[in-house]
Amino acid sequence: MTKQSKNRKLALAKLDKTKLYTLDEAAALVKDMTTTKFDASVDVDVRLGVDPRKANQMVRGVCTLPNGSGKQVRVLALCTPDKEAEAKEAGADYVGLDEYIEKIKGGWTDVDVIITMPSIMAKVGALGRILGPRGLMPNPKSGTVTMDIAKAVKEVKAGKIDFKVDKAGIIHASIGKVSFTADKIVENVKEFLSVIVKLKPSTAKGTYVKSVYLSSTMSPGVHVDFKVGDA
């Protein structure tokens, strides 16, 4: 059995595992339990009553967090020369095309989001084996394949995140930082959950949102009392 650290024991002592916490209580508790020296991420895990193996029950979408994610997102814009200036002006960290495609083929993936254009997807598609497993493959559904490169870059930099249900029927997402006020964490979680509720597949039967847990990078998960009408 793994020995628990002193801080872990202190955090667990503050948590009642039998209790369903309100979102406000959960946000405050996660902040209180986190003792890391760095600004830890605040994560939300949502278990859904869907079968991700069925295409018509796949839940995937994007959410613009009202208070941003708190992360410094590194953006690569793969675009034609006529779009490079607007991509740079919008805040893209890396801008270009063929030279970055070659770098990626060589194993470089030191970015968080890749944004590109429909006309370039044939070239980008060849990078699927490298980008796919890392969650970096541009996708029209997440707004990362678009003619409006500048808008897409600005949205990602401002806190737009994309998410997808995993094989176990759970959506994981980072929705802020521990340094955020509890109110800002709550606002971000509410927006995120409202988007998930709107994406409920018509073929999903029974309880859609089965459970919601809030945690930080190093804290235990706090069970949130969530009902669909709360979103």
Secondary structure topology:
Blueprint (H helix, E strand, L loop, with lengths): L5 H9 L8 H11 L7 E8 L11 E5 L10 E4 L2 H10 L3 E3 L1 H8 L7 E4 L4 H5 L2 H4 L17 H10 L1 E5 L5 E8 L4 H17 L10 E8 L5 E3 L7
Parallel strand pairs: 3-4, 3-5
Antiparallel strand pairs: 1-7, 1-8, 2-6, 8-9
How would you describe what is shown here?
With 231 residues, the chain is an alpha/beta fold. Helices cover 32% and strands 21% of the residues. Strands 7-1-8-9 form a four-stranded antiparallel sheet. Strands 4-3-5 form a three-stranded parallel sheet, sandwiched between helices. β8 and β9 (222-224) form a beta hairpin. The longest helix has 17 residues, at 182-198. It contains eight helices and nine strands.
